[in-house]
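Lab notebook, design round three. We kept the backbone fixed and only want residue identities now. Task for the bench partner: fill in a sequence for the structure below.
Input structure tokens:
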């Protein structure tokens, strides 16, 4: 993981509620986020985090994505968009000692809260392993490789 990129998204503890916007550019996404290149973005992707201070050293975080994320259709390899309409929640608690974390409760022991790892956790969960360009995608011909959403081929005609 690129250190410079990581540090950009460490934020100081807010005094009350504060909104943070993590912005990822397409080249960064390709280089540092999904290195397997199974997903991609064409325009900047935003991860918007609202940190609410409940008391000293204790914060609630609520986050959502803004932008578009794409994968490749599992049947025809065309562009397939990913549903990003979710809200993600976790809490951050200050602790001098290392404690066992859960997905919902993260411990930190500096004045900085690492929002980038929050983003990384959630982005890896929203990327589906199976995704279609449309529900009725016809896929490609197994014989000649023709994309059957766009064209038919001699093999697909024979099949019908
Ligand atoms: Zn498809
Ligand atoms: Zn064919």
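Proposed sequence:
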């Amino acid at each position: 993981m690129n250190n410079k990129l990581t540090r950009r998204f460490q934020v100081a503890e807010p005094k009350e509620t504060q909104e943070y916007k993590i912005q990822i550019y397409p080249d960064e996404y390709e280089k540092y986020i999904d290195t397997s290149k199974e997903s991609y973005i064409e325009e900047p992707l935003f991860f918007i985090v609202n940190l609410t201070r409940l008391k000293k050293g204790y914060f609630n975080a609520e986050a959502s994505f803004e932008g578009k994320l794409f994968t490749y259709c599992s049947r025809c390899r065309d562009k397939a968009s990913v549903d990003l309409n979710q809200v993600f929640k976790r809490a951050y608690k200050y602790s001098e000692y290392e404690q066992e974390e859960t997905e919902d409760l993260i411990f930190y022991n500096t004045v900085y809260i690492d929002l980038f790892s929050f983003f990384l956790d959630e982005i890896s969960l929203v990327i589906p392993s199976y995704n279609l360009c449309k529900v009725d995608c016809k896929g490609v011909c197994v014989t000649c490789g023709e994309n059957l959403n766009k064209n038919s081929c001699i093999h697909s005609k024979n099949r019908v």
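Keep this in mind before ordering anything: The chain is about 20% helix and 30% strand.
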